[in-house]
Amino acid sequence: MITGVIFDLGSTLIHFEGDWQAVFEEGLHALAHQLEADGLAVEPQAMRAEFRRQVEASQALRQQDNIERTSTWVLRQVLDALGAGAPDDGMLDRALRSLFTASEARWAPMPGLHDVLAALRAQGYRQGLISNASDEANVRRLLEQAGLTGAFQPELISAAVGIRKPDVRLFQQVLAAWGAPPDSVVMVGDTLGEDILGAQRAGLRTIWFTADADTPANRALAPSLRADAATDDLRQLPEMIRALDGSLPQA
Question: CATH number of the domain at 4-15+108-244, please?
Fold first, then answer.
């Protein structure tokens, strides 16, 4: 019997509208401006280039070990490489808030999001969240912006807990919090190699959400890694979960 649903956040519950690379560049300009305003001696072009380099390096590392390198850690690496001294936490927070402001404005709830969550609650399903993200404050703001503050128990953000999907320990933490056996929980997410693979390794049921899932990583895994079900419309989730639970025949 299915008793709970775990959700991914980005490209599952919320949708990014725009050119990601252009928005990232906009954020880097804002980051450099804020650092300058706080009196840190960094050359903007060199800072942007070093930040991109450090982000790429941290992404490569976390693909190997599933350890989260936070945005704060990345920025400290950047400033250290540029010889900019040791900024205090307030400077780092202001700089990263500036970095993420541009992208935060371009995330919007997926169609039907709140009705779907309400329907699942009405059917008695617990709802949790596991998000791979390098900045906890950024995720908290995105949840608030989407009207999702407090909607999930527990909420696991990789920047806060230090590990990333597909590490099975994240899924096991939710199972432990709920006192639920693995096959009674469904994971809903857009990334095959993180959401679906991790959930399957932990023994959960899985639904691949495909609306924003056309990525090179997903295309590479799609022939061999299969979820229990797939959909590109959140509004189909209540019926699909009941089908997985055996209440309805599966299509």
Answer: 3.40.50.1000
